[in-house]
């Protein structure tokens, strides 16, 4: 029982820090998702384009990022960015780049996955739709922006959200570069107060609950979109 | 009729899918105000032929001129030309994520640069013409096939086209809905719209067509007046086709 009460007492003190950690997790999640979808859409369009060079670039990108571990991308950005900065400007980078590195790494990594989802979404729109858009005089960009992508994104929303839930869990990997996200804040606090087991269990419970609720909402959404 | 200006001019058009030749040396002219029905067995290339007219299907040989503008010339602004030629598809191809009103106005606004109010007014006027003003705020999925096709015709007309292309507009419809679509098309033909229609509706052909083009295996086999086609088809293939379709 002591085991519990000590933890709950400390939780009241650590709540603001945990909340801050959670906001960092959300920041990484939001920026990486939005950026990932944007870059992913661009990659998907390149992949589907009839210009061969664009095709190759997109294909290479997707294959590259799907073949290296996320942890590696994360670390590489964290260590390489200050190094490149120094190399280019001659100054030392004094700011903490953990957050920016995390966001950029996740964004680029997720873009590879999102691009495949977007590509499938675009391909699921019948050719008749682009024919109709063309027949009305729309150019490629208009037909994509006004006709194909809005329909494709509607179909893809559940898949994109599911990928975001996976990203929510994977974002704990920023632990490796010392970013104080929700998980690491729990870890550090637990370590400090000798309540490590409790804090890690608690963190697990939070990740589990948020993911479960989000998955449930996505399922409901999927049903509504398919009807 | 013969002195009216040529709106659609196909000159020795040939097209291949890789090694397979789908169109062979197709030549015909459609003059302003003329209604031409294109028919033939499935796989004869009639849908492909009509899609070459607005460049949805590129051609490898020959020339196509629409209102005097060569469509297979890389310098031609194909999008601009397409905006002047209306097209109606077998599967309607309304945009499912847009309301009927938006379907009618989106290309007017984005392609022709009309104001939203003007586009809406014009779209709704044509919607009224096809007898569907009550459906303006619905979405395509809420309409029947026949209604969707009439909206598709109204959408094409809203662009003030110089000619209309119909690619089997009634083939995907239940029998009881065919008439409502054909009625709209007959009305258009009587108003003097230049029309090229791929269809199996021989009743429609008899009623309003000036000419009938019969295709087989990618070639134009017959190209004659409606009366000649129905009364004295010259080719054996066309006779067989007519026997099958009329009896």
Automatic annotation (TrEMBL), chain B:
Family label: Belongs to the ABC transporter superfamily.
CDD domains: ABC_HisP_GlnQ
Superkingdom as given in the UniProt entry: Bacteria
Protein name: Glutamate/aspartate transport system ATP-binding protein
A GO cellular component entry from the record: plasma membrane
Molecular function as annotated in GO: ABC-type amino acid transporter activity; ATP binding; ATP hydrolysis activity
PANTHER family: AMINO ACID IMPORT ATP-BINDING PROTEIN, GLUTAMATE_ASPARTATE IMPORT ATP-BINDING PROTEIN GLTL
Residues covered by the ABC transporter domain: 8-242
Recorded topology in the membrane: Peripheral membrane protein
Main location: membrane
Places the protein is found: Cell inner membrane
Alphabetical UniProt keywords: Amino-acid transport, ATP-binding, Cell membrane, Hydrolase, Membrane, Nucleotide-binding, Transport
Source taxonomy: Bacteria, Pseudomonadati, Pseudomonadota, Gammaproteobacteria, Moraxellales
Record-listed E.C. numbers: 3.6.3.-
């Amino acid at each position: 029982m002591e085991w519990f009460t000590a933890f709950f007492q400390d939780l009241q003190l650590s709540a603001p820090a945990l909340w801050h950690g959670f906001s960092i997790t959300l920041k990484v999640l939001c920026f990486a998702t939005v950026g990932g979808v944007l870059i992913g859409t661009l990659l998907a369009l390149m992949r589907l384009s009839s210009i061969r060079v664009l095709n190759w670039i997109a294909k290479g990108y997707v294959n590259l990022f799907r073949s290296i571990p996320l942890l590696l991308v994360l670390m590489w950005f964290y260590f390489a960015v200050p190094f490149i900065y120094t190399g280019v400007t001659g100054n030392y980078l004094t700011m903490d780049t953990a957050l920016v590195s995390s966001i950029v790494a996740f964004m680029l990594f997720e873009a590879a996955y999102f691009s495949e989802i977007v590509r499938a979404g675009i391909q699921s729109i019948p050719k008749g739709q682009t024919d109709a858009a063309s027949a009305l005089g729309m150019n490629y960009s208009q037909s994509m922006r006004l006709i194909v992508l809005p329909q494709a994104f509607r179909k893809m929303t559940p898949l994109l959200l599911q990928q975001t839930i996976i990203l929510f869990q994977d974002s704990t990997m920023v632990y490796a570069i010392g970013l104080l996200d929700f998980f690491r804040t729990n870890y550090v606090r637990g370590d400090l107060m000798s309540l490590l087991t409790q804090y890690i269990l608690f963190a697990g419970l939070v990740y589990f609950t948020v993911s479960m609720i989000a998955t449930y909402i996505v399922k409901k959404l999927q049903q509504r979109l398919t009807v | 009729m013969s002195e009216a200006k040529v709106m659609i001019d196909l000159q020795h058009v040939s097209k291949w899918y890789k090694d397979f030749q789908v169109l062979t040396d197709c030549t015909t002219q459609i003059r302003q105000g003329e209604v031409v029905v294109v028919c033939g067995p499935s796989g004869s290339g009639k849908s492909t032929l009509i899609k070459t007219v607005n460049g949805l299907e590129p051609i490898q040989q020959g020339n196509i001129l629409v209102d005097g503008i060569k469509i297979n010339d890389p310098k031609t602004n194909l999008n601009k030309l397409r905006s002047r030629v209306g097209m109606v598809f077998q599967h309607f191809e309304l945009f499912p994520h847009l309301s009927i009103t938006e379907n009618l106005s989106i290309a007017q606004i984005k392609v022709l640069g009309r104001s939203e109010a003007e586009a809406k007014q014009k779209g709704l006027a044509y919607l009224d013409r096809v007898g569907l003003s009550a459906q303006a705020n619905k979405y395509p999925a809420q309409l029947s096939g026949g209604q969707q096709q009439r909206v598709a015709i109204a959408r094409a007309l809203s662009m003030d086209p110089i000619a209309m292309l119909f690619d089997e507009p009634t083939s995907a419809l239940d029998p009881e809905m065919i008439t409502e679509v054909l009625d709209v098309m007959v009305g258009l033909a009587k108003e003097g719209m230049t029309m090229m229609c791929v269809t199996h509706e021989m009743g429609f052909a008899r009623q309003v067509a000036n000419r009938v083009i019969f295709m087989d295996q990618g070639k134009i086999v017959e190209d004659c007046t409606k009366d000649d086609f129905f009364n004295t088809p010259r080719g054996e293939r066309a006779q067989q086709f007519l026997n099958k379709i009329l009896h």
